Amino acid sequence: MSQHEGIKTVGRWHSDRVQRQVTLARWGTYGQPILIFPTAGGDAEEIERMHLVTVLRPLIDAGKLKVYACDSVAGMALVKSEGHPRHRMWLQNQFHHYVRHEVVPAIRADCQSPELEVWAAGASFGAFHAVAVTCRFPDVFSRCLALSGTYDLRRFFQCGPSEFTHDFWVSSPLHFLPTLSGYHLEVLQRRFILLASGEGRAEDIGESWAMANALGARGVPNRVDSWGHAWPHDWETWRKMAPQYLAEWTRSP
176-211, pLDDT tens digit by residue? Predict the structure, then answer.
């Protein structure tokens, strides 16, 4: 990793899992590590350009949060209609394994703590991935902040119902949650997922309620927060939401 612009650190490497160059950005030196997923077409530095890092700066500077972000590999492929739909489903599944087996170890190495639990967060498509990795890997991700999430991605793949592959079903939390059992489910039931959404322009809080119902049916602690019709599906909403919730989560007892 190399140092850029003060405390922002950027790591880049080639990932065989997603078959491309990937980037991991970091802001902060100490505190609870949180991995923030970009929106669909975003890269690892999107949250800085959109001033989310700016509003989280008091928590970062106070040593309460250590913020990480990775590229939206699967989201970019979906937005650009990269390859065949089967390829994009494969990449969605591979992206989650890249996060678990490459990004998380990089975060733990950076924090010098091999067993450290990480929080997940994201907005829009980023919320989907934050919920997905928390549900798939609850041994690693202990808490999730999902803002204005879109959770049923089937409509974005432009294919018929019979064309969805195993890669899609095992990476879509709405669809794999009913299949979980045993120790995996027991660990997930000790985690917490917060689903916040406005109800203004381009928002669909029904997505959050559908996700909450799927989580609740399996006994996974969660909460839906509606911010009402004044808040649109946009960064102005997420810049208000994220620091409020994360300040609550990092507040000393």
Answer: 999 999 999 999 999 999 999 999 999 999 999 999
Q: How far apart are the first and last CA of the chain?
A: 34
Distance of CA 147 to the CA centre of its chain: 9
Bridge partner list, 147: 123, 196
Contacts of residue 60, Cβ cutoff 8 Å, sequence gap at least 6 = 7, 27, 28, 31, 53, 66, 67
Which regions of 5-140 does DSSP assign to beta strands (E)?
Answer: 8-15, 20-27, 32-37, 65-70, 118-123
**Dist. CA 203–CA 234, nearest whole Å:** 9
Domain 2-248 of CATH type 3.40.50.1820? yes
Amino acid identity, position 246? L
SS (H, E, C) 138-180: CCCEEEEEEECCCCCHHHHCCCCHHHCCHHHHHHCHHHHHHHC
Listed by start position, the domains of the chain span 2-248
Q: How many helices (H) and strands (E) does the chain have?
A: 11, 9
pTM of the model: 0.95
